[in-house]
Design brief:
The protein is α+β, with helices and mostly antiparallel strands. It has one domain (3-71, 80-93). It contains 2 helices and 2 strands. The chain has a two-stranded antiparallel ribbon with strand order 1-2. The longest helix has 31 residues, at 3-33. The mean pLDDT is 85.
Length: 94
């Protein structure tokens, strides 16, 4: 086997993996911005994203829940905040 050809094929593979990694990061950033109504929906969305990634997987998946008042202006004293869930994860190679 030609060593020069082997180096160029490795370089091509590294470029391809880097490109796929940046695409996966972009998709994960979009998923970070999504708001979910319950705690299970972010896990399902994360698993769906992970099934679409051919060379990477999600690790350290966390669901962050917090209360947020809907509508404009100051909320009433007796109003209860709506629970919102977000996902947080890392991308690692398979």
């Amino acid at each position: 086997m030609n060593p020069v050809k082997n180096l160029t094929s490795n370089n091509w593979k590294n470029k391809r993996l880097t490109k796929k990694y940046t695409q996966a990061q972009s998709q994960l950033r979009k998923l970070y911005q999504q708001e979910f109504a319950c705690a299970e929906d972010p896990f399902n969305a994360g698993k769906l994203l992970e099934s679409q990634l051919p060379f990477h997987q999600l690790a350290n998946i966390e669901v962050i829940e917090y209360g947020q008042h809907r509508g404009r202006g100051r909320p009433r004293k007796d109003s209860q905040p709506t629970l919102i869930s977000h996902i947080q994860a890392e991308i690692v190679p398979k």
